[in-house]
Amino acid sequence: MVKKVKARSVPFSQTRARHANETAEDYVEAVMELIAELGECRVLDLARYFNVSHVTVSRIVKRLHDENLLHTMPYKPVELTVEGLKLAKRVKDRHLVVLAFLMELGVDKTNAEIDSEGIEHHVGSKTLAAMKKFLKK
Amino acid sequence: MVKKVKARSVPFSQTRARHANETAEDYVEAVMELIAELGECRVLDLARYFNVSHVTVSRIVKRLHDENLLHTMPYKPVELTVEGLKLAKRVKDRHLVVLAFLMELGVDKTNAEIDSEGIEHHVGSKTLAAMKKFLKK
DNA sequence: CATGATCCGTAGCCATTGCTACATTTAAAA
DNA sequence: TTTTAAATGTAGCAATGGCTACGGATCATG
Predict the structure, then answer these.
(1) Contact A40, A33 (CB under 8 A)
(2) Is any atom of nucleic acid chain D found less than 7 Å from the CB of residue A51?
(3) Are B85 and B32 spatial neighbours (Cβ–Cβ below 8 Å)?
(4) Nearest in space to B49 (alpha carbons), one of B65, B35, B63, B70
């Protein structure tokens, strides 16, 4: 008799797509933050923010432009599209909830910041709601 | 005056390395589970488990062999090295804690399983300790 | 307006993780 | 034993995200 093992809940066929999506979330959030802090967001600002070369940023910005999340013109600042802004707001809200949640749970700020940046991308709506509920008490 | 924006807590310079590491964690955990369930772990078992082609599994198994996490011989089952088993146990323990934690938080089992698989890789020792403490109460 | 510093784009390399197509090995069945 | 099905390996392609090196654009400043 051959036992059957169930496949993962999150199919791995989408690993690359999921990573690309996380990158998109990180970038729109960063663009929103950098515009808020600096007034505009240049490619080099993103490169410094993420600690990568401007080349990496440039290519990713181009991809996100093709995906209608960012506006770009050669040698001009990066801006958010309507869709990009919507995503950025959602991501930032979720990020803040996760961060506050971890700290409320007793994790020190430093570790809460580190972990929340990794965790946030994997927090579904149900988990997010549960975290918000926990924070209210 | 130019404002300074702090870089992310988790430098993105290590994105690829982090993803590769997550893959390693997922694979050793899967190998341990499949051996427990099926008695042995074949490349195709992993392919079915992760919903990817056997080619993808084959290449990753080779890499993890080079990293001393897995034993492999051509056309033979995949096994864990001592180091791989140690990692697998740690990963499984953390996974179970995160899953139990989410369910205790009020997330339904289905969503807890989905989210825990993404979240687990980003739970540091401090956050893990906080989750365990929460579960004790 | 010239010029040099800074910013940005392009070319081209690598690693990881997907894939299809085809070859080879293993093991079971005829 | 031979043949056939299943499992595994290999070749080679694409997308994503790292990088260095180099060249063109922009802008402040002399």
Answers:
(1) no
(2) yes
(3) yes
(4) B35
- Confidence band of A2 (pLDDT split at 50, 70, 90): very low
Give the three-state DSSP class for A75. coil
With 70 as the cut, is the pLDDT of residue A46 above it? yes
pTM of the complete model:
0.91
**B119 vs A122: CB contact, 8 Å cut-off?**
yes
Check if the beta carbon of residue A48 is closer than 8 Å to that of residue A57. Answer: no
- The pair of structure tokens assigned to B93 is 């323990």
**Residue-level pLDDT at B20:** 80
Token reading at B64: 């993890």
Please give the domain boundaries of chain A with CATH numbers for all domains. Answer: 17-136 (1.10.10.10)
Parallel, antiparallel or unpaired: strands A70-71 and B70-71? unpaired
Neighbours of A123 (CB within 10 A): 23
Residues of A with CB below 8 A from B42's CB? none
pLDDT in tens, A125-134: 999 999 999 9
Outline where chain A has alpha helix (H).
15-38, 43-50, 54-66, 82-104, 109-119, 125-136
Q: Which pLDDT band holds residue B17 (cuts at 50, 70, 90)? A: confident
* Closest C-alpha to B47, from A59, A12, A46: A12
Q: Tokens standing for A97? A: 């909830």
Q: How far apart are the first and last CA of chain B?
A: 51
Q: For residues A64 and B82, what is the distance between their CA atoms, to the nearest angstrom? A: 43
Locate the chain B residue with the closest alpha carbon to A110. Answer: B9
Between B5, B33, B115, which is nearest A38 by CB? B5
